Amino acid sequence: MNRDPDIFPDDVNGDALWEMQQSGDDLSKPREIEFTIVFSEEEEALKFGETLLINRQKILLADNNENKTHPFEIVVYVYMEATYDEITGYQDLLEMHATKFNGRGDGWGCLEQ
Prior knowledge:
By secondary structure, this protein is α+β, with helices and mostly antiparallel strands.
């Protein structure tokens, strides 16, 4: 099967989704996707997390001892289809709001369906 750049653009998200499909993942099946936002200060992570909770988002605050500059992370769990537009759109939205709290995106992941 040839890679369709309209469905799997040539960037990190497009590459990840292409690899998922090639390994047999049924991307049309909705699933819980985890988006990670990292922060240098715990207080900033908590403020961002509060904003998400007010908007009824499922989140987790965690320590990431492997990241020396941004050791605090908020993981946001969203049930959606694993499409480029859905993932990239939500990731961009999170990152836009995270910058207000000095946070930055650190990727996403999900279980194979």
